[in-house]
Amino acid sequence: MAKPGRKPGSDGEKSRARLLAAAAAEFALSGYHETKISAIVKKAGVSQPAFYLYFESKEAIFQELTDAFREQLFTHVQASLLAPDIQHASLADAIAAGVAGIFSFFHEKPQLTHIGLCLSPEAEAIKEELAKRIQLNLEKEQQMGYFSADIDMSMAAESLVGTLVHFGTTSRLQKEPAERAKEFVQLFLNGLMNREG
After folding, report:
1. CA dihedral 80, 109, 114, 176 (to 10 degrees)
2. 0.90 cut: is pTM over it?
3. pLDDT (tens digit, 9 = 90+) per residue, 180-197?
4. What is the DSSP letter of 191?
5. Least confident of 39-53, 55-69, 103-117, 157-171
6. d(CA 194, CA 197)
7. Domains in the chain, start-ordered, CATH in brackets?
8. N or C terminus of the chain with fewer C-beta within 10 Å?
9. Where in this chain does the record put each HTH tetR-type domain (predicted)?
């Protein structure tokens, strides 16, 4: 369990932030069981007693990283919900902007993403919750008339999550997040069919 922090901007808060960043790097590199508190404090440039000013244990700092990932991911998913008055011509761009937000988060926080989607004992539950939240967004957007009424949004959400997780946990996100998001939307909106002929 995390201990109460100090005022934002204080040296203590900076040390705590360095510990979190160092822990994310060590967990992502070595895994949970192989990561030692001694490696975290060395990377953070603080003493081992300083670690215990902010965190009760290795489990506590790992849980805080998992919780931070979950909260930030679901904030991006909520932000991706389409507004109710988008013109059809702008629909693909609006969807791509929401997807780009998620891809950007994965791109900017690869260690945290690896912890949340792969290392955490809660990883499967996070993915299930991600699918549920995306399904809710899709069903609302379906009700707004953006998507066909005969599509099973549960299956669509599971497919989207599979692709998002794959890009988020591999080196496949080699293009800029906005560019990759446009390709993602092109695939899911228009599919693989050649419509010219």
Report:
1. 70
2. no
3. 899 889 888 877 666 554
4. -
5. 157-171
6. 7
7. 11-56 (1.10.10.60), 62-190 (1.10.357)
8. C
9. 13-73
Secondary structure of residue 158 in the 3-state scheme: helix
Q: How far apart are the first and last CA of the chain?
A: 61
CA angle in degrees (0–180, nearest 5) for 70-74-75: 115
The position carrying tokens 């591999």 is 170
pLDDT digits (tens, 9 = 90+) for 51-72: 999 999 999 999 999 999 999 9
Contact at 8 Å (CB) between 21 and 44? yes
CA distance 7 to 97: 35
Per DSSP, the residues of 132-146 read HHHHHHHHHHHHTTS
Residue 50 CB-half CA count within 13 A:
18
The residue type of 20 is L
Please give the Cα distance from 110 to 30 (Å, whole number).
Answer: 14
**Two tokens at 129?**
């919750």
Number of residues written out for the chain = 197
Q: How many other CB atoms are found less than 10 A from the CB of residue 92? A: 16
Within a 10 A sphere around the Cβ of 66, how many other Cβ atoms? 20
Question: Which of 67, 75, 182 minimizes the C-alpha distance to 133?
Answer: 75
Q: What are 149's two structure tokens?
A: 């009424």
Q: Which of 1-5, 66-70, 144-148 has the highest mean pLDDT?
A: 66-70
